Amino acid sequence: MVPPWVLLQRANALVPRGATVVVRAEPPNPTTDSYLHRIGVALLPGRRIVPAALWGVSSPPDQLVDADYEIVVGPVASSPGRRLVLSTPEGSLWRRGR
């Protein structure tokens, strides 16, 4: 419970209000991602939190493409179309390109 809380508290200062954010685990896990969605809603007020999974079921990939930011709890995994904003031992914050 502590690693996501620490990461989301740090990301709160960097993600602008009104932004769309997806919070997920690395490696992806629908049960963990469901929990991370709820904690994201609680700790990132003023942002639209898009679920990577709800009730243990992964969201369709096309639902996630509109997110402005991606918060990944776990190891840093780079991918095309994202810019690293924050890296911590708990995870990372990425700005997604459009």
Multimeric status of the protein: single chain
The arrangement of helices and strands along the chain is HEHEEEHEEE
Shape descriptor: globular
Give me the count of strands: 7
Count of helical segments? 3
Strand order of the largest sheet: 2-1-5-7-6
What gap, in angstroms, lies between the N and C termini?
32 Å
**Main β-sheet, in a few words?**
5 strands, mixed
Helix content: 25-40%
Domain count: the total is: 1
Mean pLDDT value: 91
Structural class: alpha/beta
Report the sheet-strand fraction. 25-35%
Radius of gyration: 12 Å
Unreliable stretches covering 5 or more consecutive residues:
none
General description of the model:
- There is one protein chain.
- This protein is of the alpha/beta class.
- The protein has one domain (2-96).
- Helices cover 30% and strands 33% of the residues.
- It contains 3 helices and 7 strands.
- The protein has a 5-stranded mixed β-sheet with strand order 2-1-5-7-6. The chain has a two-stranded antiparallel ribbon with strand order 3-4.
- The longest helix has 14 residues, at 30-43.
- The chain is globular.
- The model has no long low-confidence stretch (mean pLDDT 91).
